[in-house]
Fold:
Amino acid sequence: QVQLVESGGGLVQAGDSLRLSCAASGRTFNGYVMGWFRQAPGKEREFVAGIRWSGGSTYHADSVKTRFTISRDFAKNTVYLQMNSLKPEDTAVYYCAASNTINIHTTRDRYDYWGQGTQVIVSS
Structure:
């Protein structure tokens, strides 16, 4: 049974940094894409960043690509999202997801497994 467990969210001030973690278990993720999405109140869930588990190539949404970085640690079976220069508009629940596909897709329907989410609140 695949499990994705996010952690690292919290309340921070604008300009601060946070690192989110996603601990993955239940199978090997070779050939998978791991992604981060976020959902703000009243808004659709949106793609933030993705990484190919095996090759390590990444893709970041335009809104975050100069501030956020996705990475993974094979030994810990964990995916990270380093978030710098946080803004109030980054406030959302952040979700980790896994997609059994080669390409990094940006739509939620291409992802097979989801974590429960971790809340990030950025105050101005």
In short: The CA atoms of residues 88 and 122 lie 5 Å apart. The chain has a mean pLDDT of 96.
